[in-house]
Amino acid sequence: MPDPFCASVRALVAAIPSGKVATYGRIARLAGKAHGARQVSWILHSQSKKYQLPWQRVIGAAGRISLPPGRGFFEQRRRLRQEGVSVDDRGRVDLRIYLWQAAGGKAPAQKKRTGRAGP
DNA sequence: AGTATGACGTTTT
DNA sequence: AAAAACGCCATAC
User: Fold this and answer.
1) N or C: which end of chain A has fewer CB within 10 A?
2) Is nucleic acid strand B under 7 Å from A22's C-beta?
3) Is the C-beta of residue A47 closer than 7 Å to nucleic acid chain B?
4) Structure pTM?
């Protein structure tokens, strides 16, 4: 397993807490490859079973399950719901609520004033 | 070695 | 808002 990227991806995915989700791109970036989203998906596809990874907690950046129906879409939806994640019938998840944000990874959002003084 | 493919993401219609 | 086009990059053949 001389592939650090692979190991990082596994560690990151394994670190996603139950009830939260992450996106392929996010994982890829944290693992060091800004454009490795596809590779993350490939890694999950090939090694999720072997390493017991919570692959269901990784979805597309649009907040939607990327897995095509017939390839595990329903299973992923079921698993997520079982963990308490609300999933739309079309596989949509509200990232504002369920997106996992690594501790210390992002600066705490400062107040984002609307720009115009209040009423 | 070159082409096709995909559990992606961003940009443009 | 939704769909298509384009870019990326490791595997498969």
Assistant:
1) C
2) no
3) no
4) 0.86
Cα-flanking dihedrals φ and ψ of residue A99, to 5°? -65, 125
Q: Which nucleotide shows the minimum CA-to-C1' distance to residue A36? A: C9
Residue A10's nearest CA partner among A26, A33, A31, A29 is A31
Q: What is the pLDDT along chain A (119 residues), one digit of tens a residue?
A: 578 999 999 999 999 999 999 999 999 999 999 999 999 999 999 999 999 999 999 999 999 999 999 899 999 999 999 999 999 999 999 999 999 987 765 544 443 434 333 31
Nucleotides of B under 7 A from a protein CB: 6-10
Q: Is the CB of A11 under 7 A from strand B?
A: no
